[in-house]
Amino acid sequence: MGTSQRFGTTAVEQAEAVIVEQYPRLVRLAYVTLPGTSGRHARVLLAHRAVQRALPHTRGGGPGVAGPGGPDSPGAPLEDVRVRVLRASLARAGRTRAALARLSWPPAPPFVWGLRLWPPAGGIDEAARLPAGASAPVRAAFVLHRLDGLPEESVVRLLRAAGAADPADAVREAVAVPVGDLGDAGDTADPDAGPRAGEAFLRALRNPEFDASVVSARPTDLLRRRRRARAVWAATAALAVVGGVLAAHTASRAPDTRPLAGPVADSELPDGGGRAVWSCTRASGWAGPGDVLVQLRPPSGPPQDVARARATAACGRFGQHLLAGARWRSPAGRWYQLAAGSREVTGITATGAVRAESKGRSLVAPAGARGAAVRLTGRPASGAGITALDGAAGGRD
Q: What global pTM score does this model have?
């Protein structure tokens, strides 16, 4: 009893057991059926790929137990797998698909990098030489009938299920393929020596000890591979540079979605108003300029928007000095002019409708008439003056 009968309980499990058990024979079927124009390396990979992808995609279906005729009987798991392998191999025999096969497209396992594969001498390459000039269905029929030993009617049934055109003619051509060119003819004076040697060679290929899935491997052209690797790295670096430039260009035009908020200063409010915090929220673009919002946050109640500015360096790496002012009403109902500066500010002066001066980072003075202009100037430790931030300017040395 074979592996497929001992362990298989579903169609998928039966097929998996058959693929493992019959893997060398299935690879031989795929390799000989595939076009030789794709090259031995691609042919080997495509043969293994066709067998490995012969597993059904679903677990549906019946138990898939082989019928009374054995594993090669109609509907048996081995026949179903053979049909799948044949479909994949015959589809690759077209001119367009053969060209794609040389490029290993579409990509599917098994994948091999850095190695060239081919069958060892005395193996399936010699067997594939016999029907090399024939069509793909004839090559498939040659393997199924002459190597796997299937009856002609079984081969016709398999080719028809795989979608081959005129399978009966393909089998007849496969039966007529001469084998006299294979093997060592020995006595050239004997006209039957060639055919006898060829049949002996085919018998050797049918031997269960012969593994058609064995391959030889050598590294690819090392110098060419090195040049290709360098070219790939250069192209990758160029793409990275282009991507960085595009990202920078895009980012410079659109402010960043996550704004950065930070405290600027705190100051004591008059008339027992408590301690307020001045904050600056910045939404910046990659190139530097961004949008800024300065707020006065009293101990209770909502924050008060003090100043807004667009496309400014204020509150950022290149605009660390900041001065802002606001009118504020105390709990006692009186209006005051407030001002505060960043940590480098050592003094603040108010001119215009309010005239006052303070040492330190904050200023509190009675406010002037509503709408009257007030000019605020800060003195950083560096000695240069800065003006209060507003919608048009300010916040600059």
A: 0.49
